[in-house]
Q: What sequence folds into this?
């Protein structure tokens, strides 16, 4: 197989992928792209970690395209309908249904409230650990 063109890789990386920067206990920083499994880096400063991540992401996309793989869509560009079907153990379903009945709400509303609480939607924005919008991180800001 041939290597993808630099322009192709750069066009992919220009899309709004979710870059995550985490301070490490040792005083360094690690960085990764949420959508790219295995694309990560580190550095002594946030800027260095971000720059190293761009290089790692370039190599990740290049390798993925070279092997004929698919590069995932950025989370920010995915469409979500608000509808979700999932399975749970019958006993948990029963407990949730009973709790909803006791609280006088629908099972759907109970589960929406539970998920919102778990994800921090009920906390002030300053205390959230997840960016409000994927791709919010910008080095140096």
A:
């Amino acid at each position: 197989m041939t290597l993808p063109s630099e322009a192709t890789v750069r066009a992919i990386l220009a899309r709004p992928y979710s870059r995550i920067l985490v301070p490490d206990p040792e005083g360094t920083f690690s960085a990764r792209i949420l959508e790219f499994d295995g694309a990560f880096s580190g550095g002594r400063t946030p800027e260095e970690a971000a720059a190293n991540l761009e290089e790692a992401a370039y190599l990740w996309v290049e390798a993925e395209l070279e092997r004929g793989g698919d590069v995932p869509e950025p989370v920010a560009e995915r469409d979500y309908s608000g509808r979700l079907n999932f399975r749970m153990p019958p006993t948990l379903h029963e407990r949730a249904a009973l709790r909803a009945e006791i609280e006088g709400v629908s099972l759907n509303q109970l589960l929406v409230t539970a998920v919102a609480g778990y994800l921090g939607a009920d906390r002030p924005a300053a205390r959230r650990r997840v960016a409000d919008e994927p791709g919010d991180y910008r080095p140096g800001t």
Remarks:
- The chain is about 40% helix and 10% strand.
- The CA atoms of residues 16 and 77 lie 8 Å apart.
